[in-house]
TrEMBL record:
Gene name tied to this protein: ltaE
SUPFAM superfamilies the record matches: PLP-dependent transferases
Span of domain Aromatic amino acid beta-eliminating lyase/threonine aldolase: 10-294
Cofactor requirements of the protein: pyridoxal 5'-phosphate
Highest taxon, organism lineage: Bacteria
UniProt-recorded Gene Ontology molecular function terms: L-allo-threonine aldolase activity
GO BP terms, alphabetized: glycine biosynthetic process; L-threonine catabolic process
Top-rank EC class of the record's enzyme: lyase
Record Pfam families: Beta_elim_lyase (PF01212)
EC assignment: 4.1.2.48
Protein name, entry field: Low-specificity L-threonine aldolase
Keyword Lyase: yes
Gene3D superfamilies xref list: Aspartate Aminotransferase, domain 1, Type I PLP-dependent aspartate aminotransferase-like (Major domain)
Annotated keywords: Lyase, Pyridoxal phosphate
Record organism: Litorilinea aerophila
């Protein structure tokens, strides 16, 4: 069940989710210790649980998805090494180029296909030969689900093929699994199976799963030892972090299956928007909780629509001049979706009237 007593319908992201009552209780009661000494029993428990869920030997708790990815790529690559990744990936677009800035890692972006995948033939062709002119190809990064590509899900077969390709060439495979839980629910497959071929995975607890803070990186015991060192140098060695990990344990035990509700709501939103003139969207491409669409109305752009929605207590961000992204989450109910579609209908209709000379105020 979603919790939707909030007067604001916030679809800006699933990062806006607030901790549940069960999380707050677990945080209150958490047993803690100094995690840099490895002595926080709640952090240790969370790490062991996530390692098991992802089928890896070990895991480390980090403060954010950005830190999870950075710690991972720093643990796979040295300075001047190259990582192959999508040109629409979060690591490439939205993490300040941290891998290059802090790790001297050379990014090799390849075009993401609309379904979030990389063309594996192109990936293979991009792996460098042994030649002193070239950086050393070390890592392939995938994102599942893929944020910018609309929350699209990469299949088990694709993930396996990418891992096989990486390993055949002596490269590692990292998965930005900020929303891996959504992918696993959408595919009805165990998360461990989905990332079986990956050498490292970063998963978020504070997106759809509604924990207040935190991500976890999983991989081999040796990899996680390096990741712990890198976490520390980035200032991410937390102390009594069990208060945070406690919420994470509730997140992974109680909040994964309900993501199916977010997916159904996202599809309902997409179908509702598809019926309106002035919006372009393909509802069949909405596989999880992210809904991207374009405002095609002749007088309104995405910023204007976002502002008009805000006046109706609905928050949806523009992500381009015409493009918007709505993210269903724990606090958004099915009834809220109907409210949102109704608001869009009104705004688009009023925009059309404005073009016929009637007054419509956005600001
Ligand atoms: N994504 C945020 C914004 O940064 C865009 C969002 O609202 O979707 N990987 C992926 C695929 C992500 O979508 C995000 C966050 C991250 C990593 C980073 O996670 P945080 O915000 O915890 O550093």
């Amino acid at each position: 069940m979603s919790e939707s007593n909030n007067p604001v319908i916030d679809l800006r992201s699933d990062t806006v989710t607030r901790p549940t009552a069960a999380m707050r209780q677990a945080m209150f009661e958490a047993e803690v210790g100094d995690d840099v000494y490895g002595e926080d029993p709640t952090v240790n428990r969370l790490e062991a649980m996530v390692a098991e869920l992802l089928g890896k030997e070990a895991a480390v708790f980090v403060s954010s998805g950005t830190m999870g990815n950075l710690v991972s790529v720093l643990s796979h690559c040295g300075r001047g090494d190259e990582m192959i990744l999508g040109d629409s990936s979060h690591i490439f677009l939205n993490e300040q180029g941290g891998a290059a800035a802090l790790g001297g890692i050379h990014p090799r972006p390849l075009p993401n296909r609309p379904d979030g995948s990389l063309d594996l033939e192109q990936v293979e062709a991009s792996i460098r030969a042994d030649n002193e002119h070239y950086p050393v190809s070390r890592l392939i990064c995938l994102e599942n689900t893929h944020n910018r590509c609309g929350g699209r899900v990469l299949s088990v077969e694709y993930m396996d093929a990418a891992g096989e390709l990486a390993h055949r060439h002596g490269l590692a495979l990292h998965v930005d699994g900020a929303r891996l839980w959504n992918a696993a629910v959408a595919l009805n497959v165990a998360p461990a199976r989905l990332v079986q071929a990956a050498d490292s995975v970063s998963v978020c607890l504070s997106k759809g799963l509604a924990a207040p803070v935190g991500s976890v990186v999983a991989g081999s015991a040796d990899f996680i030892r390096k990741a712990r060192r890198n976490r520390k140098v980035l200032g991410g060695g937390l102390r009594q972090a069990g208060v945070l990990a406690a919420a994470g344990i509730v997140a992974i035990t109680e909040m994964v299956e309900r993501l199916a509700d977010d997916h159904a709501n996202a599809r309902a939103l997409a179908e509702g928007l598809a019926r309106l003139d002035g919006v372009a969207i393909q509802p069949e491409t909405v596989e999880t909780n992210l809904v991207f669409f374009d405002i095609t109305h002749p007088e309104l752009d995405a910023a204007q629509v976002s502002l008009a929605l805000k006046q109706r207590h609905i928050l949806i961000n523009p992500v381009g001049p015409r493009r918007m992204r709505a993210v269903t989450n724990y606090h958004v109910s099915r009834a809220d979706i109907d409210t949102v579609v109704g608001a869009f209908a009104e705004i688009l209709a009023a925009g059309a009237q404005a073009s016929q000379g009637k007054v419509y105020v956005y600001g």
